[in-house]
Amino acid sequence: MNLPEAGRGVFMNANRVLLVSPLVYRSRSYPNVGLGYVGAHLARYGIDVRIVDTNFTGEDPYAALRESDALVVGIACESRNVLEALELAKFAKGLGHVTVLGGLHVTLIKGEILDSAGVDFAIHGEGEQPMLELVHALREGRSHEGIAGLIHRRASEPAGEVVVEPAVNVPDLDDLDFPRYELAGVSEIYEYPLITSRDCPYDCNFCTVGTISGRSWRQRRPEHLVEELLEARRRYGIKRFFVADEMFSLNMERVKTFCRLLIKKKNNMEWSVMEGLRADRVDAELLQLMKQSGCRWVIYGIESVDEDVFANISKGERLSKIDKAVQLAKSEGMRVGGYFVIGLPESTFERDMRSIRYVKEMGMDYAAFWMANPYYGTPLYQWVKDNAVILREPIGDNIVNSLSTMPLFETQQYPGRLVKKAHAICNLRMGYRSFYDEPLPTGLRNRLRHHLRFWGMILRYDARNAFAYLRPSSTRRPRVPGWRGWMVNRRLGMRKGRPGERKEPMLTTTQAE
User: Fold this and answer.
1) pLDDT (tens digit per residue) in 394-433
2) Between 444-461 and 416-436, two packed helices, what is the crossing angle to 10 degrees?
3) pLDDT tens-place string over residues 227-273
4) What's this model's pTM, rounded to 2 decimal places?
5) Residues 344, 334: contact at Cβ < 8 Å?
6) Which string of b and e fits 231-260 if b means at least 16 CB within 10 Å?
7) Helix runs in 48-188, H state only
8) CA atoms within 13 Å, Cβ hemisphere of 420
9) CA 176 to chain centre
10) How many Cβ atoms from other residues are within 10 Å of residue 196's Cβ?
11) How many other CB atoms are found less than 10 A from the CB of residue 406?
């Protein structure tokens, strides 16, 4: 087999692979799980692997590429960092590396990714086994055609034709090695990301999850999960963990067994479920066991509390179930949050603003509001093409939800300016505290810019309630006990109560202009 032109550099080490996670909007507080799994799988079979996790370690990927003699460079590619990924691929190819792109965005657009200069190969679906087989094929000089999940240009006739080989999922997730984050130079992780299952069988029309492995939900054994946590404590000194699944509680008995094992092992680690928890897949016993085993936070995917909007997202769930699930978790003493989406089909400003009242009425501790994103390949993208006006393509850092994010589409009944207003008001009122209480930037000029940006957003989108933002903000820190803590608690606006209890101001709803 002839290697791509980029791979003929005589200095390249055919048994060495460099895996890169390109920069996204802001750094993560946990390592790249996908690359951790791929790196571990390659290392198991004797491949010399190094990971550059730009978003966790801050390492410069361009410097790493210049210094590396790896034959193959694998680049993780999301919709939000695809432009940076393509720049890295072009740079790597210019240095003589063979480039391979993988990840969610590649899975969404498949063969189109090879139209970009600098991309030799791509992998759609799950990447562990395809990457291993491709490295072996390149190292041994044999044909790469027929490798499951590989996207490539045909070497035989018709030469140059793009071929998308069918993907094959990992049948048993327990056969995979635990992610190896030390390959990225990581020796300490405070909050560990735990994957207990893959994919999701549901059909939410805005979600990309089912595209990875065709809604083939697979689960790991509870015993294997506990073993990973104990190993992670030994390797990385973890203090707590969070479940990073897309569908954690589909099999409730499995989760109950997992909780019982944590209790039996006296794991003594706090944990949370930040996503993947459906309201119709929890019951009182499950939440009670979660709390007893150390779970402190649960966040439900609620999306919208308007009946008409909710019915149009094909979630296969009822709002009454969500009400009950929130109440059950609160009754167990857990902190409860919700994720909402602004600008879904059939929504309006008034309908989206109902979510604010819902959060207040249910006594929820946290709410995050995301702007509807019509990712390529989703039913929502097709709906937007047929019924709305696309304002910008769903790629790049500008799709990341922040106070400065702008809408990707608009409809006649919901203009983009109102979508943005709803998004800004909801996040300012319900999530502004996490933005405002985060560690301030260093330097007087940066701090001033930080405050000006925050108040500028308030005056632009929620001026009627500006004075309410001057009230003491909440904080995730527990109430400080004793006389020494009196002044601290007073400064933080914490009233006397149980440790950790917070009395938070709730702003009133502003109607559309």
Assistant:
1) 988 777 777 778 999 999 999 999 999 999 999 888 755 4
2) 140
3) 999 999 999 999 999 999 989 999 999 999 999 999 998 878 999 99
4) 0.86
5) no
6) ebbebbebeebbbbbbbbbbeeebbbbbbe
7) 54-57, 61-67, 82-94, 104-109, 128-140
8) 17
9) 21
10) 24
11) 14
CA distances from 352 to 344, 373, 481 (A): 9, 15, 40
DSSP letters of 149-217? TEEEE-SSSSTT-EEEPPP---S-GGGSPPP-GGGGT----SEEEE--EE------TT--THHHHTT--
- What DSSP state is assigned to residue 114? G
What the block records as the tokens of 337 is: 């949050």
Sign of the dihedral defined by the CA atoms of residues 410, 415, 420, 426, in that order: negative
* Eight-class DSSP state of 9: -
**β pairing state of 389-390 and 98-102:** unpaired
What kind and span of H or E run contains 69?
none
| Angle of CA points 35, 38, 41, to nearest 5° | 145
150 closest CA partner among 106, 186, 203: 106
Q: Is 302 a residue whose pLDDT tops 90?
A: yes
**Could you tell me whether strands 191-194 and 240-243 are parallel, antiparallel, or unpaired per DSSP bridges?**
parallel
Report the distance separating Cα 102 and Cα 306, nearest Å: 37
Token pair of 423, please?
């998004």
Which pLDDT score is estimated for 107? 93
The verdict on whether omega for the bond into residue 222 sits within 30 degrees of 0, i.e. cis, is no
Task: Tell me how far CA of residue 13 lies from CA of 68, 71, 134, 316, in angstroms.
Answer: 9, 5, 15, 50
